[in-house]
Amino acid sequence: MDIGPSVVNQLVRDRSLRLATALAVAVAIPVAVLFYFQFRSISALSRSSAVILRQLSQETAGGAAQSLQDALKAPYINVLLRVSQAQTEPLDLGLIGPTLEQGLENEPFVQRFYVWSDQTIEHRDEVLAYDRDSHGFTTNVPEGPLMVKRFPARDKLTSFVALRVDAEGLRRDFLPAFMTARLKTVEGPTDLPRLGVTVLDQDSRVLFPLGGTAPTQFIDERVFPLVFFEPDLQPLIAPERHQPEIWRLRTSYGNQMIPAIISARERPQRALLWMLLGLMAFSVFFVARAAAREVRVAEMKSNFVSSVSHDLKTPLALIQLFAETLELGRLKSTERAQEYYRIINSEARKLTRLINNLLDFSKIEAGLRRYKREPVNLTELTRRVLQSLDSQFRHSQYTVTSQLAADVPVLIDPEAAEQALENLLSNAMKYSPDHREINVEVNRVDGFGVVRVTDRGIGIPPRLQRKIFRKFYRIQSDAGSGPQGTGLGLAIVDHVMRGHGGFVRVESEPGRGSTFTLHFPLHAGESPGERHRDETDSGDRGRTADVARSA
Ligand code: ADP
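A: This is the predicted complex of the input protein with adenosine-5'-diphosphate.
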């Protein structure tokens, strides 16, 4: 039941965690607000872009269709209406001739004008044509009598003026030129697709742009009848063919609808924002982690100082105590004296190891640690280290078993390798207070000379198995509880192994024990024959050599 509050307390007390949280909050909240507004402004921008596109399309479609219709009506307004208003009875050809001439000049798609009057002095009751070839009134025009015959109201009228359109010229020349000029003034947003305008005739043939295709997706469409006169006059002039052609004008944005355009434009912007957001979160996380780590290292360093003082003081006190006792000569039995000498020796070794670790660590930190490699038999080296620790094993009542292959040649710095192995063995003793059994193996595995140290101690939780190789890192960091240490041993082991092109691995299960394995690259100079022999030797591994036994 205490777990909840105690975990919370621990979190509150954990300075690195507090720092990481403060950093995350101080940076994450403003960044989140910033990004929220960014996303909102993208949405607002998209909405207004959509409105602009829609308006541009509507206005262009309406405006262009209207001005096209006006242009088509121009001959009626500028010529026919003027003539009708100004005409005199009888029809004065001399008066209307210049108006028709000007009409031909101004209205490029008009092919010819017709004039008829039953009051005209000359050419009475005769259809006259005024066209580009004659530039004057001519008679015997094929359409003329036809038109007049069919003209139902002829009896009621005394005259009329009409025009004939050059249908081909209207489609091929007039319309493209007119639309091009009209659209020159249309401007849209530069970063969005251009507005396209297409004009189609009754049979859905594209008249504008020349050679273009009809858009499948269009935004606006205006449909209008192709009339060159007042529509009301049409039935009078051509009563049977009163079927004006229907044209269409469409606006489009490259076959895309507006929502698709907007979302295509929005997508990269949103993606970029998400990416930036991810990047920010990532950096905040790493900065927080780095800061937390720094705080933790600072804490570890302060623990380290107290551990070093403790680790120095304890053996020194023991050495002093036993040396003084020996000096006073109060000991009766030589066996006892021997024991005291052994203790002094073993404590001195501990001190040496500690000081070596400290010196080595400072060299590593300064980047000055160099390894002097020479051919060494790893088995011999291991045997030497085990012997040197023999009295410590016996004194602390550890059973040490070993399986050592006969010959494992490696190219290493023997002192550094001994120090690494001693650190592992000393940890194996320190962290297995209950089951005092240690096993050491030396053999070859996959091109490496391997030393494996196994204990049956407290073990290491899987999540901490990588961390223990960091400098100053200790699982039992609280001074006073558990074995003392500086947190440098494994950091040094790791450095030594990397320095030799090898590596150290740990397998461990809490409560069951740990196995640390040092992999040194084999000495390249050896021949395959030798390797075979050594592999055979390593078959001897079942043989157990007790280096030290519990008393
Ligand atoms: P130190 O032993 O001085 O604390 P090390 O770098 O040698 O520092 O080890 C780091 C930590 O790894 C130790 O504090 C201990 O918690 C853990 N550790 C190392 N070896 C063993 C082992 N054989 N069994 C259990 N834990 C171990």
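The pocket of adenosine-5'-diphosphate is lined by residues 423, 427-428, 430-431, 455, 457-460, 468, 473-476, 485-491, 514 (CB under 6 Å). Residues 526-551 have pLDDT under 50 and may be disordered.
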